[in-house]
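> forwarded from #structure-qc
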């Protein structure tokens, strides 16, 4: 009997009755399947983005070759330039050439400078991220605590004046476009007080005003979302039950409130970063920042279509990748969000 018992014990999988040893593997497989589905969706979305940007640029009236040469160009010179740019090929051939070029990492050549578009993007993307990433971190670090504190101060109808002041201030911040803040900051702090550099990237001080202009709107919106979600969580049954067990406040907030509240905040956080990337287009031009924003405006003026296509593709891809990372993070933190993908 003892021998049988020992043999059975040796044959038992580690972790108890065997079922618990399978669960981590099943969870990992579910997460891997979810991530693969999201990655496949990203690839399809990038393909659609590439196609949309190409045909959108092609729909612009006029001949790019003639536009870049100027009004004094002869017909023969325009024809030669058209052949050099490959614009004499059928539209579908141009599309296929562009699509295969993107797959190889070649985004075309600038009509104006004749530089590869990938080279221009490699030089212009880091300055844009130098504004967007710090702005995103500041938005998260400011809005989440602020919204949570406001929820605690205004819970159960308390702090009516605080609530009204919070709504008024965040409403102003949310409704004012970032380029308006950028213009206001430049007039007051650069032209008037002369506290910051006039334009360009000249060091840490030159980052302050562009980042501040990008932060205000998203921080106001996210703090309002966090407050609303925190109020819902604080009024939920499981939080009330936890209060009944007389848990310390810090443990109650850390274990029961914050994880559930941050789900909505994280979902919106991905949209915030995408919005910050898009918002840099106007803010960069106010401060003459050497990023994608100033480059795309100059490309539009010069009708440099390959550069416009490349910048739109980069900005769109950054937004799509950000959403992918948010979805996977939510899938890790809240497995329920993966149910609809199974």
């Amino acid at each position: 009997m003892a021998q049988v018992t020992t043999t059975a014990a040796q044959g038992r999988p580690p972790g108890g009755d065997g079922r618990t040893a399978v669960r981590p593997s099943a969870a990992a497989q579910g997460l891997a399947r979810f991530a693969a589905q999201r990655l496949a969706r990203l690839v399809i979305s990038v393909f659609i983005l590439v196609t949309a940007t190409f045909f959108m640029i092609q729909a612009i009236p006029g001949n790019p070759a003639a536009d870049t040469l100027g009004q004094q160009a002869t017909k023969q010179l325009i024809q030669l330039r058209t052949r050099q740019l490959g614009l004499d090929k059928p539209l579908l051939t141009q599309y296929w050439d562009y699509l295969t070029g993107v797959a190889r990492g070649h985004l075309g050549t600038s009509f104006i400078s004749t530089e590869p578009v990938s080279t221009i993007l490699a030089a212009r993307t880091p300055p844009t991220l130098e504004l967007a990433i710090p702005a995103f971190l500041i938005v998260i670090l400011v809005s989440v605590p602020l919204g949570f504190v406001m929820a605690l101060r205004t819970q159960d109808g308390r702090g009516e004046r605080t609530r009204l002041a919070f709504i008024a201030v965040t409403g102003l911040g949310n409704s004012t476009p970032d380029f308006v803040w950028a213009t206001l900051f430049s007039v007051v702090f650069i032209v008037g007080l002369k506290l910051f550099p006039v334009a360009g990237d000249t060091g840490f001080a030159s980052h302050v005003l562009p980042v501040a202009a990008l932060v205000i709107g998203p921080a106001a919106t996210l703090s309002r979302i966090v407050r609303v979600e925190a109020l819902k969580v604080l009024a939920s049954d499981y939080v009330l039950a936890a209060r009944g067990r007389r848990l310390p406040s810090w443990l109650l907030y850390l274990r029961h409130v914050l994880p559930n509240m941050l789900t909505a905040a994280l979902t919106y956080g991905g949209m915030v970063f995408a919005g910050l990337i898009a918002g840099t287009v106007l803010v960069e031009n106010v401060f003459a920042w050497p990023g994608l924003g100033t480059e795309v405006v100059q490309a539009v003026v010069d009708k440099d279509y390959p550069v416009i296509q490349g910048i739109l593709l980069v900005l769109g891809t950054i937004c799509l990748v950000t959403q992918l990372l948010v979805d996977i993070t939510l899938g890790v933190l809240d497995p329920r969000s993966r149910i609809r993908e199974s």
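QC bot note: The chain has two domains: 64-103, 121-334. The radius of gyration is 27 Å.
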